[in-house]
Amino acid sequence: MSSSPLFGGWPVTRFAYALLIGVVGAGIVHIAILFLLPYLAERDAWSRMAELGEVHETLMIEGEEANRLLANPDPLFLAAACRFDLDEGPVRIHAPDRVLFWSLSVYDRMGQNIFSLNDRTASEGQLDIVILKPVQMLDLRHAFPEDFATSIFVEADLEAGTAVIRSFLPDESWRSRVGDYLRSVSCDPY
Amino acid sequence: MIHKIFLIAFALSIAIGGGAASAWMMIDRGFGFGAVDVGAWTAFPDRGTPAADPYSRARFARQGYLALGQAEGIAFTAARDTLGQPLSSSCTYQVEGPIPPSRLWTLHAARQGNGGLVPAGGALNSLAILRREDGSFDIPVSRDPHPGNWLRLTGTGEFALVLALYDTAVATTARAVDVQLPLIRRLACD
After folding, report:
1. Which residue has the higher pLDDT, A9 or A135?
2. Rounded to two decimals, what is the model's pTM?
3. Domain spanning A45-189: CATH 2.60.40.1610
4. B54 CB burial (10 A radius; 0-12, 13-18, 19+)
5. Which chain A residues are Cβ-neighbours of B27 within 8 angstroms?
6. Does B7 contact A14 at a Cβ distance shorter than 8 Å?
7. Inter-chain CB proximity B162 and A170 less than 8 Å
8. SS (H, E, C) B19-32
9. pLDDT digits (tens, 9 = 90+) for B12-44
């Protein structure tokens, strides 16, 4: 036995040693939970959207769904969203029409915002964006499709992700126009 | 022998219990890391992006929200007036003062929902604001109708104001700390 002082028959240094290991272990567990949680979260935006529709399907995100999916949902905006899978090829997000203001964000599989733009960044205010992996960009350079002449290319190191398009609703009379615009957004693999 | 088993169990319970509990508490409470405070208003420009701190990243993943991108805009929220009193639906407030340059902005009343703030009550936008000759304006916020730019409140209890700026240069942390935002003055209470 060690020569440490006894506390009720227990060696105090051993007790302190166990306490120290416990606290260090708690730190490790704390950090592990912190960094694993984003990967393990089951109720993330992706899985919530999977309940609403298919991959590459444009969904209107309104009312309750907007409150559940969007941070600070704005009552003067309408939003549409689609999930995309780049393993099926580059995805093109395109709308034929124009509206007063739109903005778009691309999120990775974990729901982190990795890219955003608005209609002023886009050519002639038209929504026409191609999201692709760097290797798909290389392939595309060899045989550039003419359809993509005015598209904005977003190279992203993603397998899959989500795109959200928001559009401004100045007043109720715009609701059907802006709603039709967002429903016309296509989100198809090329 | 029994000492050893006890000490190991002791160390393990501190490690797992303490680590999980402390991680849970810090993530659930969401200490405002990365917050930008301007007067009564608060924004989280990095929240929901890869630049966010691990705590808000874990919290965000659990809530499953999609955040506004930098090129889209930034949302400031206020749960208290300029003097630090909680905003109450039974009071009348006046929102007045400068709003940073942006293509458009919206102001709406909100309430705490299950996870975040959800719209409750009226909403105004920059295109439909009545201004004085010098371009300045004020917004009465009340349950009772007011002339001018009345922002309607509904229900009882506490509420929050959300000021969202779209297509603005102040959507980054570095720029957001320097902005000037409107004052929220309490005029009277029922």
Report:
1. A135
2. 0.86
3. yes
4. middle
5. 34, 37
6. yes
7. no
8. HHHHHHHHHHHCCC
9. 999 999 999 998 888 877 667 778 899 999 998
